[in-house]
Amino acid sequence: MELFQAKDHYILQQGERALWCSRRDGGLQLRPATDLLLAWNPICLGLVEGVIGKIQLHSDLPWWLILIRQKALVGKLPGDHEVCKVTKIAVLSLSEMEPQDLELELCKKHHFGINKPEKIIPSPDDSKFLLKTFTHIKSNVSAPNKKKVKESKEKEKLERRLLEELLKMFMDSESFYYSLTYDLTNSVQRQSAGERDPRPLWQKVDDRFFWNKYMIQDLTEIDTGCGLLDYSHYPRFCAD
């Protein structure tokens, strides 16, 4: 899935459709892939494996888009259904703030001839990634007068702490698994009993394990409205 940065949107494109994520209000919109031609100077940032959802850490702060930037195949279920584990995530502020280096896999179509150097020493806690994220948060905090300086710093501190916990939850726990083609939340027996259920998959999963349901609420509302959303890259999770 290709990730593009445009003036007012981040655009996730896969096949014939694209998900437009507003950098003004955090809204999501499903559009034809050809609409990329209408975006203002789109730049390909690289490839991502999927969308976890979006989250707002404070009502006065912008929405953050959470993406899977690296996965690991852990096995296959009968029927050749792959089960993957989330190993790295990327967070994008849905605002005018410029993104930090997300360290995404380069898109061969738009980065032809560019080789990305491998890391010699891996960083399990991704401290470099965290530092870049927090540096950009700090540099983009607006404090128009002295009375708002303290309030801005408190919000910045809250956002930094919550983002840090979010990143650690994914990168340190190694407990989040997903499949693009199989429902990991229900037993084989329950799935067999509901084979003729015409509802989309997200309405049939076990909510006890569908922990990011709120985070992809905008996506499910798009699906309810048009019935065209492809969930193959918007994974439902089963946490270990």
UniProtKB/TrEMBL annotation:
Gene name of the encoded protein: INPP5F
Record protein name field: Phosphatidylinositide phosphatase SAC2 isoform X4
Occurrences of domain SAC (ranges): 167-240
Source domain of life: Eukaryota
